[in-house]
């Protein structure tokens, strides 16, 4: 159980199964996930319990949305050989950690999370005065902390949730990381570093605690990270001993803010399922062409001869996602001089968009024909995630004192 743990290279993120992935989700999250999978040990999951917090009245569609989204992920290039892909509700350990964290979470922390009141306002037609909805960010904290990740890649809208996750971790470590013999155990762990590293550790610890030198803290962390002589528990002790806190059981993860390009919907507003202005990742090309043809442009271009301003046109935002430099120049000068028409302009963008989507759609069709494979990927992902989650829970239970 006590395998040595270096600097965590884990990354965790989830997506609610809201139906098919659209280009907004793709450019705002999924594409980034795909890049990260080759750099970190990634845990990506379908947050089906989170979908229930707002959609508990219409659960019939959840199952098809879950599978649709998994196929979208795989078709887009998430690779189950690199990343662990799973379904939240298939890893019930998330729920156990949620319940344990709920014991030490002040209600006021949940009430002051900005999305709580915002969403209640926005989704007025739903009754969100439920316990599950209030607990949404705490469930998210459990989702994250159970994999002890270094990073959580999310967009701006989720930063407050990760911030709260950090506060929960800090509080948990504060409450349960204070073993009675913490100091003695830490001193013993120092001896495992060997004489010279042990001496260096003590020196750095003093420098940080007495002079507040952040650099010393960082050096100290680097010194113990990945040391094969340390058990997980000793590593966590030495981390806490260095920082002057207790033992770190749940490390605080950092946000990895996803650079979110502007992805406008058909009406020029942000692309979002709730505005009904989306283009699906695996949508039929004819349907996409039709949507783009009728898409909003710069309202000043009423006639073909009227010059336009790309900055006022959502088609331009899409060009920036899909077109090469030459095309971008062609749009800028052609639009401003009325040298090109909107139909030509859209059709060039559309060609590039469809060229990217075409292989994704094809892979999606193959996966639809091979649901056994998809099922296997998820079953294996669920198990791999559970293995990690169980390890963390065991330490959590031990720290609380309920590992009988
Ligand atoms: N709340 C996230 C969203 O709406 C989804 C989510 C659930 C999540 N659990 C998570 C994201 C854990 C990152 C990490 O997008
Ligand atoms: Fe938009 Fe292109 Fe038409 Fe200009 S020419 S308004 S950028 S669609």
Biggest sheet layout: 3 strands, parallel
The CATH class name of the largest domain reads Alpha Beta
User: Which geometry do the CA atoms define?
Assistant: elongated
Annotated CATH architecture of the largest domain: 3-Layer(aba) Sandwich
Classify the fold: give the CATH topology of the largest domain.
Rossmann fold
Total strands: 5
Bound molecules: tryptophan, iron/sulfur cluster
Task: State the strand order across the main sheet.
Answer: 1-2-3
Q: Kindly report the average pLDDT value.
A: 92
Radius of gyration: 25 Å
Strand content of the residues, in percent? 5-15%
Query: DSSP helix count?
Result: 18
What sequence of helices (H) and strands (E) makes up the elements?
EHEHHEHHHHHEHHHHHEHHHHH
Number of domains: 3
What structural category characterises the helix and strand content?
mainly alpha
What low-confidence regions span 5 or more consecutive residues with pLDDT below 50? 1-6
Report the CATH superfamily of the largest domain: HUPs
Cα(first) to Cα(last) distance is 16 Å
The helix fraction, in percent, is 55-70%
Please summarize what this structure is:
With 404 residues, the chain is mainly alpha-helical. It contains 18 helices and five strands.
What report would you give on this structure?
This protein is mainly alpha-helical. The protein folds into three domains: 10-149 and 370-400, HUPs (Rossmann fold); 182-243, no CATH class; 282-368, Orthogonal Bundle (Tyrosyl-Transfer RNA Synthetase). The protein has helices spanning 23-36, 48-55, 62-76, 93-102, 107-111, 114-122, 131-134, 136-145, 159-176, 182-191, 195-211, 214-224, 232-243, 285-293, 314-322, 325-336, 342-368, 371-400; strands spanning 10-15, 41-46, 84-87, 151-154, 254-257. The chain has a three-stranded parallel beta sheet with strand order 1-2-3. Strands 4-5 form a two-stranded parallel sheet. Helix 1 (23-36) links the parallel strand 1 and strand 2. The longest helix is centred in the last third of the chain and has 30 residues, at 371-400. The protein is elongated. Bound molecules: tryptophan and iron/sulfur cluster. Iron/sulfur cluster binds next to helix 15, helix 16 and helix 17.
């Amino acid at each position: 159980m006590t395998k040595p743990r270096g600097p965590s290279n884990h990354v965790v993120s989830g997506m609610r199964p809201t139906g098919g992935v659209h280009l907004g989700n793709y450019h705002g999250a999924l594409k980034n996930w795909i890049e990260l999978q080759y750099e970190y040990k990634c845990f990506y999951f379908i947050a089906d319990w989170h979908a229930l917090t707002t959609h508990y009245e219409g659960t019939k569609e959840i199952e098809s949305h879950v599978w649709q989204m998994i196929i979208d992920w795989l078709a887009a290039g998430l690779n189950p050989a690199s990343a662990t892909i799973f379904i939240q509700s298939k890893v019930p350990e998330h729920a156990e950690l949620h319940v344990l964290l709920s014991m030490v979470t002040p209600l006021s922390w949940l009430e002051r999370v900005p999305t709580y009141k915002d969403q209640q306002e926005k989704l007025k037609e739903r009754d969100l005065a439920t316990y599950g909805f209030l607990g949404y960010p705490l469930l998210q904290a459990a989702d994250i902390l159970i994999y002890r990740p270094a990073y959580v890649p999310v967009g701006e809208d989720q930063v407050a949730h990760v911030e709260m996750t950090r506060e929960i971790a800090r509080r948990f470590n504060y409450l349960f990381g204070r073993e009675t013999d913490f100091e003695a155990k830490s001193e013993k762990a120092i001896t495992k570093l060997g004489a010279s590293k042990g001496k260096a550790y003590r020196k750095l610890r003093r420098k940080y605690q007495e002079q507040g030198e952040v650099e010393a803290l960082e050096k100290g962390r680097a010194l113990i990270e990945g040391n094969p002589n340390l058990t997980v528990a000793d590593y966590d002790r030495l981390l806490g001993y260095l920082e002057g806190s207790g033992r770190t059981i749940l490390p605080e993860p950092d946000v990895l803010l996803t650079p979110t390009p502007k992805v406008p919907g058909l009406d020029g507003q942000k692309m979002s399922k709730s505005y009904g202005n989306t283009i699906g990742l695996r949508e039929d090309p004819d349907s996409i062409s039709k949507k783009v043809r009728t898409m909003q442009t710069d309202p000043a271009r009423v006639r073909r001869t009227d010059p336009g301003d790309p900055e006022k046109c959502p088609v331009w935002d899409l060009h920036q996602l899909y077109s090469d430099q030459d095309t971008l120049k062609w749009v800028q000068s052609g639009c401003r001089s009325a040298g090109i028409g909107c139909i030509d302009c859209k059709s060039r963008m559309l060609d590039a968009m469809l060229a990217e989507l075409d292989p994704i759609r094809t892979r999606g069709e193959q996966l639809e024909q091979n649901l056994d494979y998809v099922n296997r990927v998820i079953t294996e992902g669920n198990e791999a995630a559970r293995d990690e989650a169980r390890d963390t829970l065991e330490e959590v239970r031990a720290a609380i004192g309920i590992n009988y």
